[in-house]
Write a structure and sequence with these properties.
- With 376 residues, the chain is of the alpha/beta class.
- The protein folds into 3 domains: 6-93 and 226-256, 3-Layer(aba) Sandwich (Rossmann fold), CATH 3.40.50.2300; 95-224 and 259-264, Response regulator (Rossmann fold); 272-374, Arc Repressor Mutant, subunit A (Orthogonal Bundle).
- It is 48% helix and 14% strand.
- It has 15 helices and 12 strands.
- It has helices at 16-31, 63-72, 95-107, 123-138, 154-167, 179-191, 209-214, 226-242, 272-283, 291-295, 302-313, 317-335, 340-346, 352-363, 367-374, and strands at 6-10, 35-39, 53-58, 76-78, 90-93, 114-118, 144-147, 172-176, 200-205, 220-223, 250-253, 257-259.
- The strands form 3 sheets. It has a 6-stranded mixed beta sheet, with helices on both faces. A 4-stranded parallel beta sheet has the order 2-1-3-4, with helices on one face. A two-stranded parallel ribbon has the order 5-11.
- Strand 3 (53-58), helix 2 (63-72) and strand 4 form a beta-alpha-beta unit.
- Helix 12 runs antiparallel to helix 13 (340-346).
- The longest helix is centred in the last third of the chain and has 19 residues, at 317-335.
- The two termini are 24 Å apart.
């Protein structure tokens, strides 16, 4: 491909998701010897020929924007799930998988009251909320849901959200449809003088570092795999230019996992001794602990601990230790370049062989396959 050919990126660098997609696009385009041009808005039609564009990677919000792109006659790939009905080739997040990941993550922290907060107008908010509620229902938990109503003044929406949050049984865990929504929930909770995360834990989506790290305390969030979306969008764009891809092709990228920050480090267990044991296990997921180590920090007999812990958490202490080790290993596989032996050691496993066996039993595939699926 000629060096002067380049991709037009029509995304907003002010949004965390878009920034991660842009990074993926730029890195992969450079590896293919292509240039990139970043704009937030489509240039005038008469200016497009001078840009010598190979393809366009963009976020299509409505049918009007899609029609404008089609009139240019340049291959375009959509990377958003704002609205249904977009017919362009697409590489997007897997919203249903995001909802399931959020539900499992919060259930693992022993909450029994759950809420979902989302926008009324976006496809992704609806899809994530539906999948979140379905996963909870399958585990026997109801889901309290609040979607911002359309065409309501800002202050009225804040008051409605506040009323919903006040009636929510506590302790509770709330998943928001993205990090902006998560921060909004946090601000309203603080206005209501409801302790966060002690009374209400909040989980966002997109892992926007600016939003998450400036929240107080920092906000946990689901990494959607946006960087990989950018890479795969470039690959699809190139296939479109050569006729190797169908114009209706679509690809969904699974989330990489949850980036845990202070907002969801709490566990919702009423039994103080069980909660102490659970926190100890979580805090030592990188160490080769067993039940005897837990007993040294919880003044109970083994039989009593087993009984009370299982009643409170739904798993035995040994099952929870195994689960914590595997959860940490999965995170390290997705978010680091560490060799597998180091991942095993840093996840509390005493040997690589034991790590490989346990990981496959718990996750349904070996560590190498899991890494390939979740790495950008």
């Amino acid at each position: 491909m000629a060096q002067h050919k380049r991709l037009l990126i029509l995304l907003d660098p002010g949004r965390g998701f878009d920034r991660a997609v842009i990074e993926g696009v730029v890195q992969h385009a450079r590896s293919m010897g292509m240039g990139t041009l970043l704009r937030q808005h489509l240039p005038p039609r008469e200016d497009v020929p001078d840009l010598e564009l190979t393809a366009i990677i963009t976020s299509v919000a409505d049918a009007r924007a899609e029609r404008r792109l089609r009139r240019l006659g340049i291959p375009a790939v959509n990377v958003s799930t704002w609205q249904a009905g977009v017919k362009l080739p697409s590489v997007t997040v897997d919203n249903e998988a995001i909802g399931r990941v959020g539900a499992r993550y919060l259930m693992d922290r022993a909450f029994t009251t759950f809420g979902f907060y989302g926008s009324h107008k976006t496809l992704f908010a609806h899809a994530r909320g539906e999948a979140f509620a379905t996963a909870l229902a399958e585990a026997g938990h109801p889901c309290h849901r609040f979607h911002s109503p359309a065409e309501v003044p800002w202050q009225e929406e804040v008051d409605m959200l506040a009323a919903w949050l006040e009636q929510l049984p506590r302790p509770a865990a709330i998943m928001a449809d993205n990090d902006d929504a998560g921060r909004h929930v946090v601000e309203v909770l603080q206005r209501l003088d409801i302790a966060v995360p002690e009374q209400v834990a909040v989980l966002g989506v997109d892992n926007d570092a600016i939003i998450c790290e400036t929240a107080m305390p920092p906000l946990s969030s689901i990494d959607t795999g946006a960087h990989r979306i950018g890479e795969e969008a470039v690959a699809m764009a190139l296939r479109l230019t050569t006729g190797e891809a169908d114009k209706s092709e679509s690809q969904r990228i699974e989330p990489r996992g949850v980036v845990t920050r202070r907002f969801t480090e709490v566990v919702a267990v009423a039994d103080e001794m069980a909660a102490r044991a659970l926190n100890y296990i979580r805090e030592h997921a990188d160490s080769p602990i067993d039940v005897s180590d837990v007993l040294r920090h919880v003044p109970l007999s083994r039989r009593t601990l087993e009984r009370r812990f299982t009643a409170a958490v739904g798993r035995s202490p040994s099952q929870e230790i195994r689960r914590a080790h595997v959860e940490r290993a999965a995170w390290l596989l997705a978010f680091t370049d560490w060799e597998l032996q180091r991942v095993a050691f840093e996840s509390g496993f005493r040997s690589f062989r034991h790590f490989a066996t346990v990981f496959r039993e718990e996750m349904g595939r070996p560590p190498t396959a899991y890494r390939r699926e979740h790495r950008a």
